[in-house]
């Protein structure tokens, strides 16, 4: 069996590639979720896996320690094998802020996801759109600057901060 790999990239001190068995190094959490899927209705599943916060914190997000709230500008982009994407803010998963129990599911309904890859699990979401299957990349991006003027795109007016 070929193990799926997940790449942690972006503004991290320790970018890394991880397999589902390697995600078992972190404390595992179990959660029962129900969400409304646009294509197949209400879904009920049990997921097990580490918290996204724990895995990303170990990768060393490049927060500026001189800026008290620097971590609030960081975004987390998640991509799955099927091309689906989701974006979260660091504040959503940080225990000092929203502390959402977002998991990297390593099993669904007691079935390991070793070959399929981990799944992004957001138990707090009513809709299943941010449940990304077969995660291939999680990019942590601190380059977002609120209030900075966006560069002009040919044929479009430049964005003006308000």
What does this structure look like?
The strands form three sheets. The protein has a five-stranded mixed beta sheet with strand order 2-1-11-5-6. Strands 3-4-8-9 form a four-stranded antiparallel beta sheet, with no helix packed on it. Strands 7-10 form a two-stranded antiparallel sheet. 7% of the residues lie in helices and 35% in strands. It is globular, with a radius of gyration of 17 Å. It has 162 residues and is mainly β. It has helices at 52-58, 90-93, and strands spanning 5-10, 16-19, 29-37, 41-49, 75-80, 85-89, 103-105, 107-108, 111-112, 119-121, 135-141.
Reading the helices and strands in chain order gives EEEEHEEHEEEEE
Which word captures the global form? Answer: globular
Supply Rg.
17 Å
β-strand amount:
25-35%
Number of strands: 11
Level of helix content? under 10%
Question: Which descriptors would you attach to this protein?
Answer:
162 residues; single chain; five-stranded mixed sheet; 11 strands; 35% strand; mainly beta; four-stranded antiparallel sheet; 7% helix
Task: Describe the structure concisely for a colleague.
The chain is mainly beta and 162 residues long.
How does the SSE layout of this entry go?
Layout: E1 5-10, E2 16-19, E3 29-37, E4 41-49, H1 52-58, E5 75-80, E6 85-89, H2 90-93, E7 103-105, E8 107-108, E9 111-112, E10 119-121, E11 135-141
Parallel strand pairs: 1-11
Antiparallel strand pairs: 1-2, 3-4, 4-8, 5-6, 5-11, 7-10, 8-9
């Amino acid at each position: 069996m070929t193990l799926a790999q997940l790449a942690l990239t972006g503004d991290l001190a320790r970018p890394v590639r991880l397999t589902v068995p390697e995600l078992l190094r972190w404390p595992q959490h179990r959660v029962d979720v129900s969400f409304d899927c646009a294509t197949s209705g209400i879904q009920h599943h049990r997921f097990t896996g580490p918290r996204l916060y724990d895995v990303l914190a170990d990768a060393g997000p490049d927060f500026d320690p001189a800026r008290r709230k620097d971590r609030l500008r960081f975004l987390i982009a998640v991509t799955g094998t099927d091309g689906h994407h989701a974006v979260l803010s660091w504040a959503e998963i940080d225990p000092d802020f929203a502390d959402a129990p977002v998991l990297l599911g390593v099993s669904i309904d007691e079935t390991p996801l070793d070959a399929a890859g981990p799944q992004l699990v957001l138990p707090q979401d009513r809709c299943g759109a941010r449940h990304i299957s077969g995660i291939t990349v999680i990019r942590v991006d601190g380059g977002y600057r609120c209030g900075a003027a966006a560069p002009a795109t040919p044929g479009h007016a430049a964005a003006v901060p308000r």
